[in-house]
């Protein structure tokens, strides 16, 4: 089963590149939804069956695979934007940077002092690479919706790391992480609403006018 | 909660429940649609809780037993104990009394019908402030202490900014917030060092630490800064005048009467930890205390804002208390028990006294502001005719605060004087006697300040149209004031009882005073004082009656005050508040500059011109504000980091993370 989990993680990494390389927002959201579903399945593959595990799986797949993407798609539709037009950094450079960071995270993970049973699997490098991808999207994209996507990918990276600890992780920590995500989404939702009302666009770089002189 | 049933009459539990009830008293009001009932419920709850809490505290004070409760919490900071020892019980008394009186006063002073927008929050945070102070006194775990401390500091902030639509109020709030958090930083250091010393976050027992240990000096310094900032000891007093002036009056009463004492409680508590404090600590406290007292009252004399004057006088009183504590500490270091006893008795009794007369004065100022519509003393005058009851009660408070016999302020200062003079024959610490003239000067200046206040507010003729038709305060406002006035008279008349009140607290902190027969000895002195006081009081009553009787016989003619026989006298002929105190202020020109802008008068018939004065506070205006703006300029390059671009902020986080990852290898 663990070998299969590794292959799914490769898929997760590929989805990272998809969301880095595409300019179409809907496509990007769907890719992240798929990533969320894959991550929802993963705990079941590496840990023995418990009801706790079922709970995690169900909640994750519903929230990350369906609820948040649905909300995002609706936001995109209502705001009538299709593409991220002018990112701060072009798509090809971000893709290249993503590749560099992925490679770096593999080398970094190799040096981490880990338990013997975790040594040969891709969890840690995949987690760091996904985290970095999230950061890349957050820093290079302008649109508020891209920012939310960035947060989602970032959280996915943290989640992969948590997979190693799924049994030890108390329910409080999970709830906390999910709450973080939810709050983040809400805040961004408010930001999206406010920006589009104030500036009639979803460009977060317009927020500079709020800067304290 | 099972222990609630077992020990329903355990006074410690009663006090704890009373504190919690006060904290919750403001909650129902948050949910009522109609204004008014929430405020009444809060006041009723607070008063009932205080009526249970005060006897419980008294019982704890005299029972010589301490009961401990343990809070089950899942935080990794060790056990969280609640203990009420006599020292805590003593400090609990003003918390309960003042908060209950203030909540009753609020009904008349801040009626919900007129202040719909602010009343709910005010009532809620008022309860929270009182409750957090009561619980603070019971907390024995450093982390829990800080939590409650922050609840107290923040609820006080929200109370100060009740009228946040005014620029002044917001500024006062910000200054308070900065000052209180500077103090909190010091408290973090303090509790960390204490934990490093003792190995747990539980506060150590009295006399369990040595002052020679490596951290002791740092602990004492951190405590002095952290608690001193709250108490308002100079030079940490900068937040105090504006915060007290801008808060609603019953809040000022609680802040000045009780919240400042929480800072003092912290210092008292800290000093009891050490069994061998060096002489230096006592000397520092004494010097800081007497300086605060002198400068505080000098500032007070210069003020023209009624409530700022009262606030500055709080600095003075805190200074007097600190002086007493310093003297006691000198006594501990040099093993002179009589100094320990007199210093502690003076300080503790002054804490109690100040928490009676200062709320009385602040509540009185609330009634005055309610009637005159301003805080500016130069615009008042003649209010005594319209509100004679407030004027009488205010007079009682003013006489007490000046330390004039036979009222309570005199008693505690008398104990301090006894302490100063006690070492005259002994030979060591003779120089303490030099404090006596300074304290006398403070008392004299206090008389100037309060004569100015009383004279310009209640006497003379009205200086503005609002002051011309004052209305007497309602019964909900008069009752708390009368209650405090009664307490002031009571302590003044029977000081020996008050001395018995403070003795257990001294004993529990400094057990070495147990062997001596001081309580009996000074109790007897207080008895004589009481006799003299009662004589004085009855003499005053007799003279007043005689005067009334004579007045009744002669035909009464009425003319404006300061009329001076002029045909068309105006109210502007009389002494204003500023002109009354100008000479006294000019003595302190270096520390306390009164900037008077005088018009240039030329010719025989000069034109209409204006004269204005602004009392300047040297420390805040000359040192701290320039320091802040200089720091701001030095760090202005950091402004460049603030782009307002979310993506750039993300980049900062990313870069930090990346550097940390690289650094780890």
SSE order and pairing:
The complex is a heterodimer of chains A (213) and B (665).
Chain A (H helix, E strand, L loop, with lengths): L1 H20 L3 H22 L4 H29 L11 H21 L11 H18 L3 H20 L7 H29 L14
Helix pairs in contact in A: 1-2, 1-4, 1-5, 2-3, 2-6, 4-5, 5-6, 6-7
Chain B lengths: L1 H5 L4 H14 L2 H5 L5 H27 L3 E5 L8 E5 L1 H24 L6 H23 L3 H19 L6 H32 L17 H16 L8 H7 L2 H25 L5 H24 L3 H28 L3 H36 L10 H4 L1 H14 L6 H15 L12 H24 L6 H4 L6 H19 L1 H15 L8 H36 L23 H11 L4 E6 L14 E6 H17 L11 H18 L2
Antiparallel strand pairs in B: 1-2, 3-4
Notes on the structure:
The complex is a heterodimer of chains A (213) and B (665). Chain A has 213 residues and is mainly alpha-helical. Chain A has one domain. Chain A has 7 helices and no strands. In chain A, α1 runs antiparallel to α4. The longest helix of chain A is centred in the N-terminal third of the chain and has 29 residues, at 51-79. The mean pLDDT of chain A is 79. Chain B has 665 residues and is mostly helical. Among the domains of chain B are: 277-548, no CATH class; 583-593 and 613-634, no CATH class; 638-665. Chain B has 25 helices and 4 strands. In chain B, the strands form 2 sheets. Chain B has a two-stranded antiparallel sheet with strand order 1-2. In chain B, a hairpin with an 8-residue loop joins β1 (67-71) and β2. In chain B, α6 (116-138) runs parallel beside α11 (249-273) and α21 (495-509) runs antiparallel to α22 (518-553). The radius of gyration of chain B is 26 Å and the shape is globular. At the A-B interface, α5 of A face α25 of B.
